[in-house]
Amino acid sequence: MPEPTAGAVNPDLRTGEPSPWLRRILRGLLGQERRFWALVVGVGLISGLGAVALLAVLRFTQHLFWQTHSEHFLEGALASPGWRRFLVPVLGGALVTLVSLVVGQPLRGHGTAGIIESIWVKSGRLPFPRALLRGFVSIIAVALGAPLGREGALLQTGAASGSALSGWLRLGPGQARVLVACGASAGIASAYNVPIGAALFGLEVLLGSFALELFGPIVVSCVVATLVSRTLIADHPSYVIPHYALTHPRELVLALLLGVLVGGASALYVRGINLASDLLDRLPSWLTPFMPLVAMTVVGLTAIAGPYLMGNGYDSVNMALHGTLPLALLLILPLAKLAVTSLCAGAGVPGGLFTPSLFFGALLGGAFGMLVEHAFPGGAAPSGAYALLGMGAVLAGTTHASVSAVLMIFEMTGDYDLILPLMLAAVVAAVVSRRLEPESLYTSVLAKRDVRVPASVPHWLREEGVRSILSPATQRVPPSATFDEVVVLLLEQPAGADLYVTDEEGRLLGVISLDALKGHLPDHSLLQATVAADVMDTGVQPITPDLSLAEVAARFGHTELERLPVVDGRRRLLGSLSKGDLLKRGRF
């Protein structure tokens, strides 16, 4: 029997690509637009089923090593002897190290940052086999005690499925980018049962736009993935908490104060994660594969005293939301969690940073609430309410995405009566955190690699005006200045600078440029009688502070000058603006 032609029927087992005939059938079944929407649904379905499979692996692994039948292993870890608390995380580190050595490259790197880079820089391309391997190892590591989030695996799997489908069907880069964002958003939606918040996360953080053309595909994928997870996993909020309400004006002021404090803590969280990564990057390259083992050994040592830092921290967050954690733990655990999370993420243990940030914020908010209770005994809201606000505020502060943060926390808890203080705390935290740390938890990683993500605010809102970059005019002369004085002042000016002629009230009369002066000198015998008014150019059109930089750029297109004078409404000289400063600061 003759062997089939290579690649004619069978898929490439190394890349997973379907054979050409199968691709032609898929491409011919539907029109281009209908095929894209079918892929959007398919990505949501794959993400939902992937979440079900990965969470089943999580539960099985936790039951095997911690003897617990639930997803939350804190009770089982507390009941375990000290030697098990130590050895199980070490085993997780050994697994990550072994896989890194086998595949020949570390599994480190923030998954969400890689997805953002794929969307903006790599036209939606993600290595599918590596993403699946990284997701599987991540979910095992979290089950064995890695202080990271389970969402990293689900997000990576969803995004990789979108990338793989777009690559198999030879979609254009625009549709590929959208499918990757759909997969990542669907992964978050299925992980936490938050379809609305996940859709807005995809738009606000991954795509940087709320355009209606993007909204539809993201929503459809999140809805499909959430339906799958609700059907096969559970249909209830991630955190079932008592009903809280903060409606007194005093409590809104406290929410504002909490937003300021947590905004600073969010900037600390971002810098802590990056600092650990930077320090570990300086280690010799031969040590890199073994760092996951070292980091998880540290986690195991801390777990001997208490297992609160292990895993994604769901149980500790739940206790903070119910107000059952003591104040000492509420104060100590957030910084300790930040330390071990930074260590493991920087060392190369794969996992998400989303859930650890919720741990960080919930416990800080719970501590704030307990301190408020001590300050106002009998008249303050329960500490659990402030724990919920802290979760939302840290999420907004670390991601710089307050809209999706508010809706995610609302969907996770189902407590609508806290929406006003939650919105206030989240927005304030995002503003404070952005002021202290301009990059978010995800874009800071990209900024170190000189990958810049376009701003998501409207161009007219982020556009700077003339006043922000004008320079004062230090040299100006009256129209009666002698020619000798004019020449001396021009020669003293820096390259490209001109001399401005003004009257007694500071109004601009004209511009004297050294280059324009060359070849246009009056008769040499008349130089002694020549003054500034004789050689100034009155045809230069000045600019005003209310012009946008784009409008100024158009003005420079009609002049040879390197600088333009800036005047007010009465034509009084305010300064000048150089073409070089314009090109550095402007967005056109």
TrEMBL record:
Family matches, as CDD domains: CBS_pair_SF, Voltage_gated_ClC
A Pfam family the protein falls into: Voltage_CLC
Localization per Swiss-Prot or TrEMBL: Membrane
Domain CBS span(s) in chain numbering: 536-588
Membrane topology, record value: Multi-pass membrane protein
Keywords from the named record: CBS domain, Chloride, Chloride channel, Ion channel, Ion transport, Membrane, Transmembrane, Transmembrane helix, Transport
The keyword Lipid metabolism belongs to this UniProt entry's keyword annotation: no
GO molecular function, one term: chloride channel activity
Top-rank taxon, per record: Bacteria
Transmembrane segments: 36-58, 86-104, 178-202, 214-232, 252-270, 290-311, 323-348, 354-372, 384-410, 416-433
UniProt GO cellular component terms: chloride channel complex
Protein name: CBS domain-containing protein
Organism field: Corallococcus aberystwythensis
Organism lineage string: Bacteria, Pseudomonadati, Myxococcota, Myxococcia, Myxococcales
